[in-house]
Inverse folding.
């Protein structure tokens, strides 16, 4: 199976504790592994001021996950994020960098 490179960034509510944040990270890492993803890299970007309010929040905690996976995994991961009360926004992009090209 051909795996693509993806980057998912999600924004947590500003009142989330560090342990709740780590629980979510571990949950999503397990989900990615369960559905065949690998090369998982999690980066905690920290608390940032939002350019505009989202669901009446002006700050959020940013977390970035880079991984290799099939496209079906992205749908599963985003559904889990959509159902989470702690996440106010998420976005997944496919990495089309030069090392992904078959030249």
């Amino acid at each position: 199976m051909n795996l693509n490179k993806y980057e998912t960034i999600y924004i947590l509510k500003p009142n989330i504790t560090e342990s709740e944040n780590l629980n979510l990270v571990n949950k999503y890492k397990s989900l990615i592994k369960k559905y065949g993803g690998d090369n998982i890299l999690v980066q905690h970007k920290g608390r940032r001021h939002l350019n505009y309010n989202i669901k009446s929040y002006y700050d959020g905690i940013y977390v970035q996950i880079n991984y290799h996976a099939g496209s079906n995994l992205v749908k599963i991961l985003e559904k889990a994020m959509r159902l989470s009360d702690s996440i106010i926004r998420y976005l997944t992009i496919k990495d089309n960098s030069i090392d992904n090209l078959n030249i």
Summary: The chain has two helices and four strands.
